[in-house]
Specification:
Layout lengths: L1 H24 L5 H22 L12 H27 L2 H7 L1 H14 L6 H16 L7 H23 L1 H8 L1 H10 L2 H5 L5 H11 L4 H20 L2 H9 L1 H13 L5 H19 L3
Helix pairs in contact: 1-3, 1-4, 1-12, 1-13, 1-14, 2-3, 2-9, 2-11, 2-12, 3-7, 3-8, 3-9, 4-14, 4-15, 5-7, 5-15, 6-15, 8-9, 9-12, 13-15, 14-15
């Protein structure tokens, strides 16, 4: 039952990621430059693991054009997500963003109906509705008004892109294996972060502000994502994703305790619980 341990570890890593990236993003002046530094750091950790683990000795690249088509599409959507990651992390609290992020699970499972012939049941439809309600609950507050709504809308858009990429992860690990696919996921999308260009002065500014601390979220994300992919190799998505998705509620609670995100507290907790239950329904656990 190694997938259980891997899933639980992944859950804690993603919870930590939500908190740390918010902490770093609050003071960022150039979010895309910060995203560049984050991705460069993640590439470093991924490449180090790739070669130290010895996986490179047994690489067999697929010759099926379909494999490369799926991976290119997935990496494109990952790249677009990474481009805006620190923009939404700056403008939305960690607890709010974690709830908004559940839309990625909704998109991933909706797409799976068509790609992997997943069944669509009444309980899954109810789960989808619960996620929509959760996002609606945290989408407006009197203190922030339209600006907050605009930031949440952009967050939803970004996590839709992430959901499409997640939808194709199963294809990626099937054709390339978890470690090699994970390396592709970090190396190639950086093109989307940089395009058309990022000023060197902006990168230097952000590096001066965050210094070595940018290594922390990069390491957490690389390990958490790899743990999830490894769990998917030996377990069912319907068993693994509910455990990983618990990071939503943990982030809401930790955001209040560690980051002082106490605005609309009861509404956030209720929305977090609703999104978590909705995720479980969507995956078909209940």
């Amino acid at each position: 039952m190694n997938w259980i341990i891997l899933s639980i570890l992944s859950m804690f890593f993603f919870t930590a990621l939500n908190l740390v990236q918010r902490k770093l993003a609050i003071d960022t002046k150039y979010p895309r430059a910060l995203s560049f530094l984050f991705n460069i750091s993640a590439i470093f950790f991924t490449v180090v693991y790739f070669f130290t683990s010895g996986v490179y000795r047994n690489i067999e690249l697929p010759t099926n054009p379909e494999a490369w088509m799926y991976v290119i599409i997935a990496l494109s959507f990952y790249g677009l997500f990474e481009r805006g990651r620190y923009i939404v992390a700056k403008n939305l609290t960690a607890s709010t963003l974690s709830i908004v992020g559940t839309v990625s699970l909704l998109i991933a499972f909706t797409g799976s109906i068509f790609i992997y012939q997943e069944s669509l049941t009444t309980i899954k439809i109810i789960g989808a509705v619960m996620i929509f309600i959760a996002i609606f609950l945290i989408s407006y507050s009197r203190s922030h008004g339209r600006e907050n709504l605009k930031n949440i809308a952009f967050g939803v858009f970004l996590y839709v892109l992430l959901g499409i990429a997640w939808m194709l992860d199963k294809k990626g690990t099937m054709y390339f294996g978890a470690v090699l696919y994970s390396m592709f996921v970090w190396i190639l999308p950086i093109v989307f972060v940089v395009f058309p260009k990022i000023r060197i002065s902006e990168i230097k500014y952000e590096l001066k502000v965050v210094s070595w601390k940018i290594l922390i979220p990069a390491f957490i994300n690389v390990v958490g994502y790899l743990l999830q992919l490894k769990a998917l190799e030996s377990g069912n998505a319907t068993q693994i994703l509910p455990i990983v998705q618990t990071s939503t509620l943990l982030t809401v609670i930790a955001g209040v305790v560690l980051l002082g995100e106490k605005d609309s507290l009861l509404k956030k907790i209720f929305a977090g619980i609703l999104a978590l239950i909705g995720s479980y329904f969507l995956i078909g656990v209940v």
